[in-house]
Amino acid sequence: MGKSILIVDDSTIMRKMLRKTLESKGHIIVGEAKDGMEAVALYKSLKPDQVTMDITMRGMNGLDAAKEILHHDPKAKILFLSNLDEEKYGEDAKRLGAKGYINKHKSNEILNLIERL
Amino acid sequence: MANKGLADAMKRNWKSPVYETAQNKKKRDDQKRSDKCSTFIPYNKVLICFFLLLLFSFSAGMKLILEINEQKQGKKIQEAISHPISASEMDPLAAGIRNISEFRPHRMIWTIGFHFFGILATMFVFMRYFLNPLKETTTAAKRIADGHLDETIPVRSCDEIGNVGQTINDIAVNLQETLLTVWNHTEQCSVAIDHIHDQISMQPANLISHETIKNLESLKQGMESMRTWVKEFDYYAVTIVEKKVLAPESDGMKQEIPYSQQLGEGEYHD
Q: By residue range, what is the domain housing residue A37?
């Protein structure tokens, strides 16, 4: 059965692709945010099971948004999806308290991790 | 875990994903409007106001002309009765000028002033709310078209011009996303091609297919040319250094996280 997921990404095409990928496995996309501010506001109102978070976004970036969400709810399950180098930024994401860091184009790994969390 | 997620969803009284999504979308749209449309200017209303202003101005001018005409006719009749019309009075232009100057000249000045003010106000509004934002949008759009995807068009209003700027920004974001995805895929493909090439090279010389080696080299060249293409662009908050996609140091990366938040039970992929 599906999980409720909030997608945070500034790219419309990426949000569309993620929605398609996640919905194909029965997950429920409860909301989409295009920047950090919107993500924090939507997280507070929707309380999703998981959040897929982009890092580089115009306005508030994903790392700052994740910090804010974790400050509000330390048990939030945030999964970073980014095009940035995994080796370099995976550790930063871990320090922040995120549940994972996966390159955006690895859709199978994204699905597997969401299933496991 | 999955059942728990759905149970939580039901607890929060979600009627259906479709209903919820529509509701969320409305909420999001309202929030976006309040956040970013602090200087919302409904251009349609502005145009209606100016149309009404011009209508009022023209009607005032028309009334004045009719009034002058009426008085001019009355004066002509009066003059015809009292004494014969002189040669100069026969000239319609001279008569017209004299009539205008004789009958309520202050009204004419007010009308001209009113028109002048209307034109100036129209020009100001046009410059302030149409031309300047359009110029700004065009300049930024040209830079984006030249491959500077780090350029962002400032969206200061939620009108048609603001929407154009926002749409161009979205196009730039999508292009950046696509190019970086191409970069990551080509990197993955290049590694795989090198691996296959090495495996083939290790085989005995009589088993090596030169056709396969040639095809692999051609593929590798194709990947390299795509990567060169991707590197030609400037990206928003991202730089490509050697083979890595990096972000400039941000506060989010530097700041220490309290131990309570360092859950560390997630999974990280190499």
A: 15-56+74-81
A positions 31-50 inside 8 Å of B (CB) = 31-33, 37-38, 41-42, 45-47, 49
Number of domains making up chain A: 1
Structural domain contains residue A38 = yes
| Residue A25 placed within a domain | yes
Q: Give the model confidence (pLDDT) of B44-78 as tens digits.
A: 666 777 777 777 777 777 777 777 777 776 677 67
Written as six digits, the tokens of A36 are: 């950090």
Neighbouring CB atoms inside 10 A of B203's CB total 10
Q: Is residue A20 part of a domain?
A: yes
Domain assignment of residue A91, yes or no: no
Mean pLDDT of B127-155: 92
Q: Could you say which residues from 74 to 113 on chain A have a Cβ atom under 8 Å away from some Cβ of chain B?
A: 74, 79, 83-106, 109, 113
pLDDT exceeds cutoff 70 at B24: no
Q: Which among B236, B245, B256 is the nearest to A84, CB-wise?
A: B245
Say yes or no: ipTM exceeds 0.85.
yes
- Residue A1 to chain B, least CA–CA distance (Å): 5
CB burial of residue B220 (10 Å; 0-12, 13-18, 19+): middle
Distance between CA atoms of residues A64 and A59, nearest Å = 10
What pLDDT, on a 0 to 100 scale, did the predictor assign at position B9? 44
Model confidence, pTM: 0.71
